[in-house]
């Protein structure tokens, strides 16, 4: 229905042009900014491909809040953690850790996949 | 800086130095949103000298204290034997150049973290440089409260560890974005917070990237604007935190082994390093940097400053959160 290449494909190709064809011609003083632009395009492309549904489903199950919006879920979990309800030794500790790890892996897969290297 | 301002500056410097100062050249080294650094080549009484003039941007004229505070800190550090550019003159009036400024000698060297870490890695780590960093920290930590010349600093905290947790929670609440992973890290810190001990001057941003190195030696410790009284292990933790290793394998700032840093620090300070406390402050450092990074992104998101670098800084938060989860054992829970 929609024309191809899609948004992610265009970003990928445009980023290639920036890095391979434009960057070598830029003065040294502008290369840092060009690399930032390339980095922003890569993050945007990965963000389009990411699927937050499994991490959100795990949070909803953890907090027994099947219809809560993402921000409400995070607020609830943040408050529980601060009050000690998810401390080691509590029944919900391991499940909270797993949910946080899954959420953070998802966020890293968009913002900086290299950060996933050492985290199994 | 226009011709008239430069002429006023030369006159002011001549009076401050008690000898004729002529400005041969001035070049902007780096312009941030808040500060400007100018490289100045001058002659003082006929002899050439190389200086840096540090000033506020016109946009932040209202804040005159920070430059004078930084000057006072540099003077205290210089007096304690820390390798800092010698602070020369400070002007808190706006009439000379349009903003308060101070002048210090210009140090030679490389500060860029990636470059220094790559150089150290090429020789399998640089224990001598790591040890030199330990001696710099020991000299900084020889400055203890009370100090009349540092009266602009907040009073020493009774309990630096608890104070840290309280302040970071307040910052998270003020920002308004729920961050359960940072809460997880703060709660972990709170459960294991070390009792109060020595209180010393902390640089509070002592990390690779904020000191200069020339031919393997530290030539300047830079960026004193976060200095505060605190637990000496806080500076060691900030330097050793995974987020400040620039991808390097070596735990002391990506430069060398922790043992070289600790041993030199202990020898120079006469204070035992408590590795457990350093680890506590390493997790604290990771959280503190995440809170700062999120705040920088917020400056962009709020529309106050539309800026790509600030926007991208927000995307550092997830990897810092991964560090927090790793350091708190959540990956194995």
Distance between the termini of chain B: 58 Å
What is the CATH fold-level name of the largest domain in chain B?
Aminoglycoside 3'-phosphotransferase, Chain: A, domain 2
Query: What count of structural domains of chain A?
Result: 2
How many separate helices of chain A?
5
What coarse outline of chain A follows from CA principal-axis ratios?
elongated
Shape-level CATH architecture of the largest domain in chain B? Alpha-Beta Complex
Q: How large is the share of residues in beta strands of chain B?
A: 15-25%
Structural class of chain A: mainly alpha
- Summarize the main sheet of chain B: 5 strands, antiparallel
**Beta-strand percent range of chain A:** under 5%
Protein name (chain A): DUF6285 domain-containing protein
Domain DUF6285 (chain A): 24-114
InterPro entries (chain A): DUF6285 (IPR046252)
Protein name (chain B): Phosphotransferase family protein
């Amino acid at each position: 229905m929609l024309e191809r290449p899609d948004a992610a494909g265009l970003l990928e190709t445009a980023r290639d042009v920036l890095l391979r064809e434009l960057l070598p011609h830029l003065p040294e003083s502008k290369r840092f900014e060009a690399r930032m632009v390339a980095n922003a395009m890569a993050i945007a492309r990965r963000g389009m491909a990411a699927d937050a549904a499994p991490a959100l489903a795990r949070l909803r199950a953890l907090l027994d809040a099947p219809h809560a919006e993402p921000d409400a879920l995070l607020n609830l979990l943040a408050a529980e953690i601060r009050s000690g309800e998810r401390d080691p030794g509590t029944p919900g500790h391991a499940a909270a850790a797993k949910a946080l790890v899954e959420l953070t892996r998802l966020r890293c897969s968009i913002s900086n996949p290299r950060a996933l290297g050492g985290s199994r | 800086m226009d011709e008239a301002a430069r002429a006023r500056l030369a006159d002011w410097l001549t009076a401050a130095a008690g000898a004729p100062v002529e400005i041969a050249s001035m070049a902007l080294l780096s312009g941030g949103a808040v500060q400007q650094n100018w490289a100045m080549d001058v002659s003082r009484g006929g002899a050439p000298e190389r200086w840096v003039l540090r000033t506020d941007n016109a946009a932040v004229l209202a804040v005159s204290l920070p430059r004078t505070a930084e000057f006072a800190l540099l003077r205290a550090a210089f007096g304690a034997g820390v390798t800092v550019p010698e602070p020369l003159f400070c002007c808190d009036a706006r009439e000379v150049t349009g903003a308060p400024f101070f002048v210090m000698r210009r140090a030679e060297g490389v500060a860029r973290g990636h470059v220094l870490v790559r150089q150290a890695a090429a020789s399998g780590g640089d224990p001598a440089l790591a040890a030199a960093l330990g001696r710099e920290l020991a000299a900084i930590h020889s400055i203890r409260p009370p100090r009349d010349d540092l009266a602009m600093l907040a009073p020493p905290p009774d309990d630096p560890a608890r104070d840290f947790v309280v302040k970071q929670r307040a910052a998270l609440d003020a920002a308004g974005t729920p961050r359960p992973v940072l809460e997880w890290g703060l709660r972990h810190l709170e459960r294991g917070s070390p009792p109060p001990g020595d209180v010393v001057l902390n640089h509070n941003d002592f990390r690779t990237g904020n000191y200069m190195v020339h031919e393997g030696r530290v030539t300047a410790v830079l960026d004193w604007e976060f200095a505060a009284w605190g637990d000496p292990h806080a500076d060691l933790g900030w330097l050793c935190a995974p987020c400040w290793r620039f991808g390097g394998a070596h735990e002391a700032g990506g430069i060398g082994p922790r043992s070289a840093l600790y041993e030199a620090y202990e020898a120079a300070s006469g204070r035992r390093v408590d590795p457990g406390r350093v680890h506590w402050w390493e997790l604290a450092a990771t959280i503190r940097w995440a809170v700062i990074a999120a705040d920088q992104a917020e400056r962009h998101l709020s529309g106050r400053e539309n800026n790509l670098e600030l926007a991208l800084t927000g995307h550092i938060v997830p990897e810092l959160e991964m560090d927090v989860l790793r350091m708190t054992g959540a990956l194995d829970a």
